[in-house]
From TrEMBL:
Keyword Isomerase listed: yes
Protein name (database record): Isomerase
Keywords: Isomerase
Organism: Streptomyces tricolor
Superkingdom per UniProt: Bacteria
Keyword check for Isomerase: yes
GO molecular function: isomerase activity
Gene3D superfamilies per the UniProt record, alphabetical: Macrophage Migration Inhibitory Factor
Amino acid sequence: MPQITIDYSDIMADAFDREGFARALHRATVEIAAAKPEACKTQFRPSAYTVFGYEDPGARGHAVVHVTIGLLAGRSAETKARLTETALELLRKHVADTAFALHASAEVQDLDPSYRKSDR
């Protein structure tokens, strides 16, 4: 824990400093949610096909990015809100200005009590 997943439109790949974003988000998660640095894990999942509103998907004028942060239960609503706001701020800093419109969102979810991990 935490388990961080970033789903994003592939058209933003060249404009998205994924490594810088992950490192900054890990630092923020440690500071805000009292996570251990070595426990922070992030996966990036590019999507080749994004549809926005009524726009023709082939126009590729919009990009979507969504950050999901899974934490063990027990953080306050204020802590979760602060972490999601910080994630959005960090996205603004780590995605370069581009010709497409960027739609960003973030959420913190409590991991299910059944959550377990294994390291090798």
